[in-house]
Amino acid sequence: VDLDTAKQELEEFIPHVRSISDSSVRKMAGRDLMRFKQFKKQGVAVKFGRFSEKENNQIRKNIEEFLSITGIDSAEKLLFTSRYPEDKETISRLKAENLFCEKLSEGIPRPWRLIYYRARKMFDPNNYKGRYTDEEKEKLKKYHAMHGNDWKKISEMMSRSNLSVAMKYSEIKSAINYGPWSKEETQKLMHAVEEVIRKRIETEDANCHSSSEKSNRDILIAREKLYQKLPWTEIEAKVGTRYWRQCKQKWTTILTNKMTKGQQLYRGIKGLQAKINLIKRLHEIKVDDAIEVNWEELSNAIGDVPKAYVQAKFYKLKVSCVPSWQKKTFSEIIDYLFEKKLPELEEKL
Predict the structure, then answer these.
(1) Whether 7 and 104 share a structural domain
(2) Among 27, 55, 97, 247, which one is least packed by beta carbons within 10 Å?
């Protein structure tokens, strides 16, 4: 199909497709469009965001089957072919002959590119190497000074994954403070968040109001926009002394205090009741994966709070109460909390 037709057809599945580069759209037309249409016939919507455990398992299955078909002896060779220059030509030929794109994305209603990135993250042996030593941090700063944001080159020099070196550099590129937040830092964070939200709202409203109207009015903001999909790396740069994850956690705390008018919702008797409500609600919805939980709807199990606050409380609950939780599925964790922890909490209450 020609480019305009491809954009038109893809727009049904990917609303933001017109902001994607033409070369990427052409690839999606070839690798994704037919799959998306088939999923639509089955009543399955195209997904974005975090991968579920079911999807991760499907990727593992697809990779294993492709390795057995082709005789390529490792997922690393398949997904990081450039690391093996002596085998590159053979592996590339086998991938083309055996339709690697189609095989990798089989059974997963997502754009091929996202599935490929997820597979690379899962199977990169350089992705799980523990904490960075002081020596590694210094090397990372040095390599960044030499190569800028060429994370592929830096990852090869560091024997760490692209994602790992990029995220670590965002933490160490400036003097990061790990202690309590100062008043000045908190103010900087609040101004930074206000600035990015105002900019976003004004862009969205550009066609609805004249410039004179906009300058004379306060912007009314839907509550969800105060904590959903904020550009945390941009906010991190504006704050200067904290990295993005700290900014996100602090903003959640500030919002929670504002929304609850400073009430301690998770302490004492209220805290026990909140834990009981949360466990009961999670058990009632009967989902197999955390990705399927609507945390927004669950927030009233605790009170009028952002969904990130509820997710953080659930994380603490499973870590502190469920033995070997890392080896359990989401539904097993919920069953354990419901059967073992809930009676104990109700007795305390």
Answers:
(1) yes
(2) 97
Would you state the pLDDT for residue 216?
43
Q: For position 213, what pLDDT does the model report? A: 47
Residue 73 covered by a domain? yes
Query: Do 6 and 24 meet the contact criterion of CB atoms below 8 Å apart?
Result: no
Domain enclosing residue 151, as ranges: 134-173
Structure tokens at 236: 């991190």
94 and 161 co-located in one domain: no
Give the span between the Cα atoms of 177 and 311, in whole angstroms. Answer: 25
Please tell me the chain's helix, strand, coil percentages from 3-state DSSP, rounded to the nearest 5.
70, 0, 30
CA atoms within 13 A on the CB side of 195: 14
CA 309, 310, 313, 315 dihedral sign is negative
69 belongs to a structural domain: yes
Beta strands in 135-226 (DSSP E): none
Q: Please state the rounded mean pLDDT for residues 262-273.
A: 72
Tell which residue, 281, 302, 303, has the closest CA to residue 293: 281
User: Which range, of 110-114, 296-300, 334-338, averages the lowest pLDDT?
Assistant: 296-300
Give burial (CB, 10 Å; 0-12/13-18/19+) of 100: buried
Give the residue among 91, 89, 119, 90 at the shortest CA–CA distance from 104: 119
Mean pLDDT confidence for 267-292: 83
Per-residue b or e along 262-276, where b marks 16 or more CB atoms closer than 10 Å to that residue's CB: eeebbeeeebbbbbb
| Residue keyed to tokens 């052409």 | 26
- Do residues 132 and 168 touch, judged by C-beta distance below 8 A? yes
* Total-model pTM: 0.60
The enclosing domain of 157 has a CATH number of: 1.10.10
What pLDDT digit, counting tens, does each position of 162-210 carry? 888 888 887 777 666 778 899 999 999 999 998 888 887 777 666 455 4
